[in-house]
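Below is how a single chain appears once it has passed through the pipeline. First comes the sequence as given, then the structure the pipeline wrote out for it. We keep one example in the README because the format questions we get most often are answered faster by looking than by reading.
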Amino acid sequence: MIRTIFAGAFAVLHLSSPALAQENAPALTPKQTETVDRLIDAGLENDLAWEVLESLTTEVGPRLGGSAAEARARDWGVAKLKSLGFKNVRIETFEMPAWSRVSEAAEIVSPFPQPLTIAALGHSPSTPEGGIEAEVVRFRTLPELQAAPMEGLAGKIIFIDEPMARTQDGSGYRTAVAKRGLGAVEAAKRGAVAVLIRSAGTDNHRTPHTGGMVSGGASLAPRPGAALSNPDADQLARAIKRADGPVTLRLNIQTEWVQNAVSGNVIGEIPGKTDELIVIGGHLDSWDNGTGAIDDGAGIAITTAAAKLIDDLPGKPTRTIRVVMWGAEEVGIYGGKAYAEQHKDKLDKHIVAAESDFGAGEIWRFDTRFGEASQPKAKPMANALRRLAITPGTNQAFGGADIGPIMRAGVPAVTLYQSGWDYFDLHHTPDDTLDKVDPEKLRQNVAAWAAFVYMASEMEGDFR
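Resulting structure:
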C-alpha cells in the first residue's frame, strides 16, 4: 500500500452537511431498499471472498510488481474472473522499471557484536559487494536529521529511530512513512553511505516492514536503505546509549534492477444496461516477504465477491460494474497511472470509483467525494450501511492509491474505511499471511461493498 494516507483529520460529518440535511435528499425506492437488504444478508453469509483470497495467496503467494510471480498472478486473475462468469476479461499490460531484493544482512560489529534483523527497502541500490562497515549515527526523527548540518556525517550510516503511532484510521502512517521515502535523500545530501530506519509499523515482533524508498519508484534511491524490525531498532538504540564510543555496523544489501519489465491490470466486468461504469478493485501485486493476504489480496477478494453477488441478482445492473486488479501498486502506482492513461478518453463514463486497500478489518466509516450538487446522494447510501455499524463520514474520501489518477481527472470516489488498528502490525512484513484474516470481518466487507455498488448502479444521475 502506497499512501499519503488519509489526508488530514476528520472533516464535518456527512449528516451535518447543509446539503445533506435537505428534506428532499434522494431516497431509494422500496424495491431497491429490499434489494440492498437482501445483498447485505447474502454478503454476511457468503464465503466467496475467503475462497478467492485463499486461492490467490496459496496458488501464487508473493507477487512483487514486474516479477514472474506477478505475471502468474495476472493469469490467475483472468482464470478466476472467467470461472465466476465475469465478461470482457482481459489484461491491459504496461511497462515499468522493476526492483527486487537478492539478499540483506546487518550486524553490530563493535562494541557489542550481534546480528540485526532488517528488510531492504524497495528501490534500494546494492551496497558494494561484501557490504559496508561504518559508524552509525542515530537521529530520533526525520525532522531532526533534516535539521542536522551538512558536515560531519560523511562515510557514516544514518539511523532514523522515529516510531509510529497506532490509530484506527491509519493516520499515524502518514507521519512515520516519511522517513522511509526521504531518509536516503537526506543521507545522500550529507555524504552518508547508507540509511537504516525503524520500521514504519506498530508491532513489536522481529518482522521488519519493507516498502518503497522513493515516491513513484522511477529510479533507485540515492543510498542503500533498510528497515530494522522494531525490537532491533530498540536494541540498536540501547547499544548506542550504552557504548563508550562509536557503534560500528556492517550492512550488506544486494538488489537487482530491470528498467523495462512488464506488468498489467486484470479487468473483468458485470455488464449493465448502459455503458456507464462503476470501477472497483484492489491491487494484485504485493511485497515479496509475505503472501499479500491483507495487502492487498483481501481487496481483490472483497470487491470480486461483492460484484459477483450483484451479478447473481435477477436481470442486469443499470450500470456496468468493472472490477480491476491493479498491477504494480506497491512499487510506484504504475497500474493506476496506466489505467488512467489507457482510459482517458472514456473517463466521462466512469460514474464512481472505489478501491479496497486497507486490509481485511471491519468497515466502520463511509466517505464520499461527490460534487456539491450530488452530495445528498450519500445520505441514503450511508443510511443503508448503518445496520453494519458503519458510520456516515466526510465528503473528503481518499479513494485509494490506484484510483488517485482518475480521481484527479474528475471521477467521483468513495472510501469504505476499514479499521486499521492492527493493520500496521502486519503491513509489508512476512506476517502478511492468510491466517491473519478474520472470515467474519471479511464477510462484513463484502456485504457493505455489494450494497454500495448496487446503490451506485441504480441511483439516477451521476455523482459529479
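The longest strand covers residues 87-110.

See the next section for the split statistics.
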